[in-house]
Specification:
The chain is mainly α. Helix content is 78%, strand content 0%.
Length: 196
């Protein structure tokens, strides 16, 4: 009975963690893309992004703990952080460990953000965009629910949400660059005129 309870808990917390990390990446893309409005200011997005990521880590921790404690399959404690060492589902459990390691780097850098350079923090934070699709591959490859249509639909919605936010962000960045480039060119021309 306890193994069954652990198994259901592992499945449920894995899916909730996936939804929360998807929401975190989605909000991160919108925040980085400077999306805001009077009713939805940037500081609210940033705060929600932080809180969502912490909540996702809580569910991920429960997911990992119950996965290792479940005696139905043996995953092992080392396989949590050392990829591809699990005797069960070596490749896809290993992808979960890779995703966790990348997420851990992002979280640690966020906690020490005030002590590191902004450029370093930003570079490390880009690992979140690598971690998320690896987590998707982990959930599809090792998850026993991946054969269920509603789970496939849930994963598809997660992928479409992040893809849509990514397209919006990079399109918005291109628009901003096009607006700023002529202004910068005008500044350079006026500076050259002054030096002559």
């Amino acid at each position: 009975m306890s193994s069954t309870l652990l198994w259901y808990t592992t499945r449920a917390t894995g899916l909730v963690a996936l939804l929360l990390f998807t929401a975190t990446v989605f909000l991160g893309l919108l925040t980085a893309g400077r999306a805001s409005s009077r009713n939805w200011p940037r500081f609210v997005q940033q705060d929600l992004h932080r809180r969502m990521s912490i909540l996702a880590l809580v569910f991920l921790s429960i997911h990992i703990l119950t996965s290792v404690l479940d005696t139905f399959v043996h995953i092992g404690w080392l396989a949590i952080v050392i990829p591809f060492t699990s005797p069960y589902g070596r490749f896809f459990v290993g992808l979960g460990a890779v995703s966790l390691d990348l997420m851990a780097a992002v979280m640690i850098s966020s906690f020490i953000r005030g002590r590191i350079k902004a450029r370093t923090w930003r570079a490390i934070h880009w690992l979140a965009y690598l971690s998320w699709p690896i987590a998707i591959a982990h959930s599809v490859g090792v998850g026993t629910d991946a054969r269920l249509l509603w789970v496939d639909g849930l994963v598809a919605v997660c992928c479409l949400a992040v893809l849509g936010a990514a397209v919006w962000r990079f399109n918005e960045s291109a628009v901003i660059r096009r607006r700023v480039s002529p202004q910068l060119a005008g500044v350079r021309v006026s500076e050259q005129g002054r030096t002559r």
